[in-house]
What does this fold into?
Amino acid sequence: MVSLGLSACSATDAGDSATKGNVTATLGDANPQPIASDPHPTLPATVHSFDGTDVTIQDSSRIIAVDRFGTLAQTIYALGLGGRLVGRSMSAKIPAIAGLPNVTPDGESMSVEAILALHPTVLLTDATTATPAVFEQLRAAGVPIVFFDPARTLNGAGPQIQAIADALGVHDQGVALAQRTTTEIGTATANLPATDPRLRIAFVYLRGTALTMLAGRGSGADALIAGLGAEDAGTAAGLSEPFVAITSEAMIAARPDVLLVMTEGLDSIGGTAGLLKLPGVSQTPAGRAHRIIDMSDSVLLSFGPNTGRVLTALRSAVYP
It folds into this structure.
């Protein structure tokens, strides 16, 4: 249970009450609670795909869901259709579906061969993990493809849930799940502790020391940070790209009070000690105070049915 602090505090107070050392934000059960148990889809369903085409889905018995953050697969599971998922992207790693075949074996790009081997009746994606040529190959093989908006925002979580539900013929379950998610987000973002100036939080994306990125506008993390009543440090420092390579100059200019990272990413560089060795990190307020929050890769940026729970867990870590 999160304590809803109502008293105002200064930026210094906020920094002092924020994380001291590494804190792991957890959900308990990373699986979203299904809104129904294997609902019966009403098909065929014709929907307007995000690529501008109209797509008719005749059969949802074998679904593959692929996007950068695992949002689509999580939502399908939460709609009660997890038993119909036959393939996923590497990022879709909630425990309930982690055993499904991964059709993005390199972590970034779809494998046409891996997808076709699973005989899908529909592919849901957001076009962030394949080239147009890949989609043409899949269409030529007879796979219906529905695209969804790749943007990840708090306000967009409910509408995206509904769009996925409508594509799969479970409109009513979509209404219920979108409402539940929106309510949870509202609860998590209500009556946040006031700080003046706002706490600055930087999201750092890590995949070993060869890939270290500071997030900026449009990363998705900026929306979570805003939902916590804080300021995205990368955006505030003038970053116009979602992610830029970490440099001493960029980190020092961002001046984060707190660093937010994915758990597996943090482990990939040797934990807190490795993070503090990255350019400029030890020279930031967060680095000097070792104020670091990590959260599971499978849920942190999913922006699906777990979003409210993610915000609640982060809120507890940021404002203990």
Residues 45-169 form a domain with the Rossmann fold fold (CATH 3.40.50.1980). The chain has two domains: 9-27+193-318, 45-169.
